[in-house]
Write a structure and sequence with these properties.
Length: about 550
């Protein structure tokens, strides 16, 4: 069994830092909640790398919110529920679609500059959206623009202290309540940070897989530490693979935004044939899981490692203006988006599951909140609708801060919490080697296509790494590997339990969706194992 803490400690022996609100992570969720919370509370924002390094930074497509006259929250709701394949929380979706437009206006007030056409917000359309409602910035650099604007605000606020290069090891709890966090400082020393509320905004889990659009920091830290602390974790089997990541020798798996297909790009196999008509009536703009599996099917049929994305029928001027970041990145590898077909293949992109929260972002542990990709609010269901993630972070970030303002003050006494497992130093192979092996296991046995046999194999391979939790850990890469191992086991166990195919979860041995048996969530808790919960999607 995975222990409650990764390290042995005694709070009475650790240095203590006091604050009101602890925010972990510096993507859109962390920055936005820090800004709002700072109006009434002292905030400590902890990030394991730097203020600008997060999944948000790499988000290209945009942020989904109803701003056009021909659109409505009802349409946005319908699209979200359809993509979520029967597992969305209708109440959570209602919150998103109705409060999203105000959240976008708040981002603009805080300095985010979205693209405009003739003085109006420029809107695009992405897969499974019925209307143009995606706001974007600098063409295809929306995430970076939001992070740029919000980080400037954070740096100006005297009520927000930022700790770069600090690693949060674990949440400290007592009797079902979060007291604060154990943090390792850049010099290796450890400290207990105590707060009235803790908000996990630590992002996703892309590094579970060998090929991902996520940065190196996306190691499922928040989900893993919340699981160890006893929080409910939901829907971990649903990992979204982005259909179109650059697949070229020597190049990283760089995201080629869905907006490229939204603007008319088509997919071709290596024979040059369009193929999406064989898989879905929405063609290239079908839901992401459909497009990703169609690409894999074509790759297998043509014995290729990629398919092509073709937008060469558009003018070079339009392509360069609309997708400057993608254009420049491809050019670094001798690929001209305006005249060449671009080789692409699927890569791990987004974690639909996470820490189960209510409509105010509260987890099942008192005073512990989750926001952004690390959370499971119920908005995304089995398959996230494109560009809903950034708006979710803003909407629920605002709700979390409102909830924190109503929390009663807690005593400042340091409780006598300690943990002793009697850990020993083990002769472990290099963490980079262990991480690569884990990623290969997840790609091979628990990726886009799964079966009972492959998942059992994954469980067996991952189980061999469990002695790690009995070892003396002291380095960031060791903590990260422990978090990846924790999250990968949750993904595999959930995928093995769900004997159907739905959204981003596809079982070759159970290829059909089965609403009568499986329109429900799988909940993981450290003490109770797996339980099921009926979905309230209507």
């Amino acid at each position: 069994m995975i222990p409650q803490y990764l390290i042995d400690f005694d709070l009475q022996e650790l240095p203590v830092v006091e604050t009101d609100v602890i925010v972990i992570g510096s993507g859109i969720a962390g920055l936005y909640t820090s800004i709002l919370a700072s109006a009434t509370h002292r905030v400590l924002l902890i990030t394991k790398k730097s203020l600008l390094e997060s999944n948000t930074r790499y988000a290209q497509g945009g942020i989904a919110a109803v701003t056009a006259e021909d659109d409505s929250p009802a349409y946005h709701r319908q699209d979200t529920l359809l993509a979520g394949a029967g597992l969305c929380s209708s109440a959570a979706v209602d919150v998103l679609v109705n409060e999203g437009p105000a959240g976008v206006q708040e981002l603009i007030r805080l300095g985010t500059i979205f693209d405009e056409v003739n003085g109006q917000l420029a809107l695009t359309k992405e897969g499974a959206h019925s209307h143009r409602r995606i706001l974007h910035a600098n063409g295809d650099a929306t995430g970076y623009e939001i992070v740029r604007a919000l980080s400037i605000q954070v740096e100006m606020l005297h009520n927000v202290e930022v700790w770069d290069d600090h690693f949060v090891i674990d949440l400290v709890t007592e009797q079902g309540e979060c007291l604060g966090v154990l943090v390792q400082m850049p010099d290796g020393k450890r400290v207990f940070v105590r707060g009235q509320a803790t908000i996990l905004c630590s992002g996703g889990s892309g590094q579970l897989y060998r090929y991902t659009t996520n940065p190196e920091v996306a190691t499922a830290d928040g989900v893993a530490m919340a699981y160890r602390a006893g929080a409910q974790i939901r829907d971990m089997e649903f990992i979204q693979f982005h259909p179109t990541a650059l697949s070229y020798p020597g190049a990283p798996r760089f995201l080629i935004s869905e907006a490229v297909r939204g603007e008319g790009a088509v997919l071709r196999n290596i024979k040059g044939e369009r193929f999406m008509h064989r898989y879905h009536e929405l063609l290239e703009l079908a839901p992401r899981d459909v497009v990703a599996r169609a690409i894999v099917s074509e790759m297998e049929e043509t014995r290729s490692t990629f398919v092509y994305l073709d937008i060469t029928h558009e003018s070079p001027e339009m392509v360069k203006h609309r997708f400057p970041t993608i254009y420049e990145t491809c050019m670094q590898y001798g690929l001209d988006l305006s005249s060449d077909w671009i080789p692409v293949s699927p890569a791990a992109h987004y974690m639909m599951g996470g820490i189960k929260t209510n409509l105010h972002g509260e987890s099942s542990i008192k005073r512990l909140f989750a926001c952004g990709e690390v959370s499971s609010t119920g908005v995304h269901g089995a398959n996230r609708l494109a560009s809903n993630s950034l708006s979710e972070a803003v909407v629920y970030g605002s709700r979390i801060v409102n909830q924190i303002r109503s929390l009663p003050k807690r005593s400042s006494d340091i409780p006598a919490v300690s943990f002793r497992l009697g850990r020993t130093e083990g002769p472990f192979q290099a963490m980079v080697e262990k991480r690569l092996k884990l990623q290969k296991v997840m790609v091979r046995y628990a990726g886009l296509c799964r079966s009972r046999d492959t998942l059992l194999r994954a469980q067996e391979e991952l189980g061999r790494q469990l002695p790690l939790f009995q070892a003396l850990l002291s380095k960031r890469e060791e903590y990260e590997f422990a978090n990846l191992l924790t999250a990968s086991l949750l993904v595999v166990q959930g995928a093995l339990h769900r004997e159907e195919s739905r959204g981003a979860h596809f079982r070759e041995d159970y290829p059909e969706r089965n609403d009568s048996a499986w329109q429900k969530h799988i909940i993981h808790t450290r003490d109770q194992g797996m339980t099921e919960e009926i979905s309230d999607d209507v």
